[in-house]
Specification:
328 residues; alpha/beta; TIM Barrel; three-stranded antiparallel sheet; 11 helices; 12 strands; Phosphotriesterase; metal-binding; Metal_Hydrolase; hydrolase
Length: 328
C-alpha cells in the first residue's frame, strides 16, 4: 500500500450509481465528464451538448475501461438533461464506476419557466439531500421531479456564470452549501473560464464548508489565469483541470507546463484531471478525442515533461479518491 493510500481514511466512502465504494476502490478516475445529455435546452444552445445514444456511450466507456479506467465523475445535475437510469445501466453493463451529480448548472441551460428559477433555497436543499441519500430523479426537465430511482448521486454540482455568485445565483449556492453541510458530500463547482473561483470559495467557507470539500472546475481554460490559480490553490481546494485536448484554448504542452508549475508550487495533492466531454469530443459519437485520450495521449506527454509515474498515479488515483469521498 502506498503512503497516499495509507492516508485515505477508512471512515470515508464514495457514492456511485451502483452503491458505495471505499476510496481504495476508486482506481484511475476522470473527475469531470458528461456521458449522457438529453435533448433539450442545452442542445438548443449548442448541439454538442446532446449525448443521447446509449450504445455509443457504452462504446466510449469500454474504451475508457480498456486503457485502465475505473471511475468517471458525471457532472450533469438534476433537471438539466441528466439521464439517471442510463447512468446506472451503463455502469452495470461496463463495470465502470460512475459518480453522479445532484445540484444545479448555469441558468442559461434551463428554459425560462423551469422550477430552478423560482424554488426557494430550503426546497432545493431538500431535493439535493434526497438525491444524495435516497435516490436520483429520472425526470425534472419539464416539472418538479417526481420519478425517483434507487441510484444515488455522490456529489453536488454547482455553477456560476460571469454574474458570479450573487444575484440570481445566491439562493442556489446557499441550497448547495446547506445540503453539503448536512450530508458531507463534496461540491464540484463550474467556473466561467476559471473566474469567480475565489468568490465561490469564500461563499462556501462562510457557510462553514471546509476547502477540501470543494472541487473548483475549468481553472485551466485560460493560461493567463496561472497566477490566479496559484492563489486559488493556496485556499486548499481541489483544482480540476479539464481543458486537455481543447486546442482552441491552448495546447497540451501548455497544459503540461501549467501542471508542472502547480506541482513545483507544492499543490500536487490538489490536482484533478479530466476532459469535460461533449458530443464533439467523444470518439464513439464521431468526435475528436475519446475517453481514452488522457491515458493514451496526454499522460505520456506529462511523463515526458518530467512528471514521474508515481506522481501521475497520485493525480489520477489518490487525489480523486480523497476529493470525492465523504464521511460516514
Amino acid at each position: 500500500m502506498s503512503k497516499a493510500d495509507q492516508n485515505l481514511r477508512s471512515d470515508q466512502v464514495i457514492t456511485t450509481v451502483t452503491g458505495a465504494i471505499s476510496p481504495e476502490q476508486m482506481g484511475f478516475c476522470h473527475s469531470h465528464e458528461h456521458l449522457f445529455l438529453k435533448k433539450g435546452q442545452s442542445a438548443k444552445i449548442d448541439p454538442a451538448l446532446q449525448i443521447d445514444d446509449y450504445d455509443k456511450t457504452i462504446q466510449e466507456l469500454n474504451l475508457f475501461k480498456e486503457v485502465g479506467g475505473a471511475t468517471i465523475v458525471e457532472a450533469q445535475p438534476v433537471g438539466s438533461g441528466r439521464h439517471g437510469r442510463w447512468l446506472e445501466a451503463a455502469s452495470q453493463q461496463t463495470g465502470v464506476q460512475i459518480v453522479a451529480s445532484t445540484g444545479f448548472h448555469k441558468l442559461v441551460f434551463y428554459p425560462g419557466d423551469h422550477w430552478i428559477h423560482t424554488a426557494d433555497a430550503d426546497k432545493l436543499t431538500e431535493l439535493f439531500i434526497d438525491e444524495l441519500q435516497n435516490g436520483m430523479y429520472a425526470d425534472g426537465e419539464e416539472a418538479w421531479p417526481e420519478e425517483q430511482i434507487s441510484a444515488r448521486a455522490g456529489i453536488i454540482k454547482t455553477a456560476s456564470d460571469f454574474q458570479g455568485v450573487g444575484g440570481r445565483y445566491y439562493r442556489l449556492f446557499k441550497a448547495a452549501a446547506q445540503a453539503a453541510l448536512a450530508t458531507k458530500a463534496p461540491i464540484m463547482s463550474h467556473t466561467e473560464m476559471g473566474r469567480a473561483a475565489l468568490d465561490q470559495i469564500k461563499l462556501y467557507t462562510d457557510f462553514g464548508l471546509k476547502p477540501d470539500q470543494l472541487i473548483i472546475c475549468h481553472l485551466d481554460r485560460e493560461m493567463e489565469n496561472a497566477d490566479y490559480m496559484l492563489h486559488v490553490a493556496s485556499t486548499g481546494v481541489y483544482l480540476e483541470l479539464d481543458t486537455i485536448g481543447r486546442f482552441k484554448y491552448h495546447s497540451d504542452e501548455e497544459e503540461v507546463e501549467l501542471i508542472i508549475k502547480l506541482i513545483e508550487a507544492g499543490y500536487e495533492n490538489q490536482i484533478l484531471l479530466s476532459l469535460d466531454t461533449t458530443r464533439k469530443r467523444l470518439k464513439s459519437y464521431g468526435g475528436e478525442l475519446g475517453l481514452d485520450y488522457l491515458a493514451t495521449t496526454f499522460l505520456p506527454k506529462l511523463e515526458r515533461g518530467g512528471v514521474p509515474k508515481a506522481l501521475i498515479h497520485k493525480i489520477m488515483h489518490d487525489n480523486p479518491a480523497k476529493a470525492f469521498s465523504k464521511g460516514v
